Amino acid sequence: MSRRFQFCAAAAIVLAASCGGRKEAAPASAPAGAKHVDAATAGVVSGRVLFKGDVPQTIPIKPGTDRVCVDENPGGIVPEELVVDNGGLENVFIYVRDGPNGYSFDVPTEPVKLDQHACRFVPHVLGVRTGQPLTITNSDDVAHNVHATPVSNPSFNRSQALKNMAETKVFDTPEVMIPFRCDIHPWMQAYVGVVDNPFFAVSHDGGRFELKGLPPGTYIIQAVHEKFGTNSVQVTIGPKESKDVTFTFQ
Fold first, then answer.
1. Would you tell me which CATH number, out of the four given (2.60.40.420, 2.60.370.10, 3.40.1190.10, 3.20.20.70), belongs to the domain 38-249?
2. Mean pLDDT (whole number) for 14-30
3. Tens of pLDDT along 143-178?
4. Exposure string (b/e) for 177-193, b if CB count within 10 Å is 16 or more?
5. Do 90 and 84 form a contact (C-beta atoms < 8 A)?
6. What is the CB neighbour count within 10 angstroms for residue 148?
7. What DSSP character marks residue 101?
8. Considering the entire predicted model, what is its pTM?
């Protein structure tokens, strides 16, 4: 076998692995005797995340010289680190940090998708369960790379040089929020909240959020923003009860 053939075969294997993504095994199933949520008695916590103070002016970022980035963003790229709509702060990750113990929650097998589209990460903030696949894709006809820098989970930095390339990752340890960036286009940033329960949301539509299906009990609910840090509240809900809470960042 010629050296040239060996090189091409090895390159083809690497490229196929990058395009198809690498799927990792999910964590083991829940221990015997764990409780499941009774939908007949589950409650809801909903509310808003508010921003207090003057909203700084957002200056669009010039998208460099890549033709795709320039054509997709003729007016520049508006940063998403501070999005305020009618007094509500968006892109805040809200989740149950602590609550009733002893419950088991099935891990979804359907992947959560983080896309690179129009030289942005879409969505800017998202949540995924421990053990659930996260698929990162490149929908642009330009090279990107996916550089994740978690603390409690393994970091990774993978190139996605071609359109429609994909990479699938699984996080085994809860961690909020994991930064993602593209080293080729430094304005491209995203944040992923990894949690071990299904009770999480990202604020939208003027800072609104909803956590459904909570079993009765007392919870610590935490809101996390990439720029303003964390804010927590304790909430107790009874059977079929709904509670409204408000988080304020300034």
1. 2.60.40.420
2. 43
3. 999 999 999 999 999 999 999 999 999 999 999 999
4. bbebbbebbebbbbbbb
5. yes
6. 22
7. -
8. 0.86
